[in-house]
Amino acid sequence: MASVLGMLEERETAARVRVEGLREEVARLTGVLEAAEIELDRRVIAREELVEALAASAAETTAVTETEAERETVPAPVPGSIVPPWREGLPLTVLAPDYQRILDVLDERQPAGQGPMRAKEITVELGLGTTSAKVEGVRSKARRLAERGWLVQETSGMFSAGRRPVAVPDAAPSA
pTM for this one? Predict the structure, then answer.
């Protein structure tokens, strides 16, 4: 009987050592997790600050008079740049060329009395063909424009020209 009791004590000691090792590992991983969360928070804040600064810069750019605008050279947006929320007086030139072209296609349809367009139709109008990759790229850009108030997305998934102000997420309440 003593050998069975000894084996159980050995197993208990091994389990106790394993539990302690796991507790130490959890404590270490908790520290690593906290450091990663702090880094994530810093990156989120940095991105939000950049978006806010870009929006403020865009607002200042629109406030410049035409004569000052002619003297200043503002760098053109680059593909992949951020789409700012639409607001009254914000020019199309704050958008990257791909976004401007989508808006141009939809704006041209409106005076002609034609209705909204599907992403595939917009893609064809842009001369990009009908491959699913091109259509999905245009659909993604059109959705982004709709989310930011630059155009209207119908419930059917079609897009039409139209501007509307949108709430800016994480914006401080105005006093």
Answer: 0.50
